[in-house]
Design a protein that fits this description.
mainly beta; 5-stranded antiparallel sheet
């Protein structure tokens, strides 16, 4: 069952950072969620970076809000899954 980023964040004890992947992404792609703003579950704003092949990726560059503030596009959609055992220390270039 796919969840949104806020449901995943809630299920892991509301801790950041954590990694998520959209259900239609390949295994080498994920996003690192660095910050959550959630006034009313299960919606809000999630901020972070995109990762491909273990390195920073500009995959979200198409989105002006991400470029400006690192707001992850479509974070409220129910198409995300938790990704475990990945490097969470990758930095935005």
């Amino acid at each position: 069952m796919s969840l949104n980023i806020f449901q995943i964040w809630d299920s892991i004890g509301r801790k950041t950072p954590f990694a998520v992947r959209r259900e239609d992404w390949g295994e080498v792609f994920y996003a690192i969620v660095e910050k959550i703003e959630c006034e009313k579950m299960p919606y809000g704003k999630a901020y972070g970076i995109s990762v491909a092949f273990g390195k920073y990726s500009n995959h979200f560059e198409y989105n002006k809000n991400w470029k400006k503030s690192k707001l992850i596009p479509n974070c409220g959609n129910y198409q995300w899954a938790l990704v475990e055992n990945v490097d969470l220390t990758i930095e935005r270039k």
